[in-house]
Design a protein that fits this description.
- The chain is mainly β and 155 residues long.
- The protein is 15% helix and 45% strand.
- The chain is built from two helices and nine strands.
- The protein has helices at 2-17, 60-66; strands at residues 39-43, 46-54, 74-82, 90-97, 103-106, 109-113, 116-124, 129-139, 144-153.
- Strands 1-2-3-7-6 form a five-stranded antiparallel sheet, with no helix packed on it. Strands 5-4-8-9 form a four-stranded antiparallel sheet, with no helix packed on it.
- Strand 6 (109-113) and strand 7 form a beta hairpin.
- The protein is globular, with a radius of gyration of 15 Å.
- The chain starts with a helix and ends with a strand.
């Protein structure tokens, strides 16, 4: 039971930290048990973090900030890259595959939120399902990292 509460606690901690220089996670309502911890990797000295959030659980204000349309059949894929307080220029590409094996490309767009660059994409997913994601992040210096992970999509 404690393990299920950890993601909610992490999201709340991130929301509280948003007042500083940390990335601003989307404001999420309800269903705390379905939120997954962010996936992390290193890109040289920069930390890459990828999150998946059902858009139906994102506040209207956050949806406007990220420039997305919310719906029951969509999830937000959010990638942030931080090197200290800086957001280095990167290219983000990727795809998602559902349990049926249907592959969909992720078209990432760079969005500035609270002075920090975030990379956002929308994937179609009707829960319950599992999305397997592969996200490639390439720095301007040619360094590259790939995040491969899966997330449960709730009903």
């Amino acid at each position: 039971m404690t393990e299920r509460r950890l993601p909610l606690a992490a999201m709340l901690a991130l929301a509280l930290a948003a007042c500083g220089t940390e990335p601003s996670p989307p404001v999420v309502s309800g269903g705390g048990n379905t939120l997954a911890m962010p996936e992390r990797a290193m890109l040289g000295t920069a930390e890459v973090e990828a999150s998946v959030v059902p858009t139906a659980r994102i506040s209207e204000a956050a949806a406007r900030q990220y420039g997305i349309d919310c719906g029951d059949d969509r999830v937000l894929v959010l990638v942030s890259v931080r090197d200290g307080d800086a957001t280095p220029p990167v290219t983000v590409t990727g795809h998602a595959r559902d349990l049926r094996g249907v592959r969909q490309p992720l078209a990432f767009a760079a969005v500035t939120v609270d002075g920090q660059v975030e990379h956002v994409a929308i994937a179609r997913a009707s829960g319950p399902d599992t999305l397997r994601l592969e996200i490639a992040v390439a720095g301007a210096d040619g360094i590259r990292t790939v995040l491969r992970f899966s997330r449960e999509i709730p009903r």
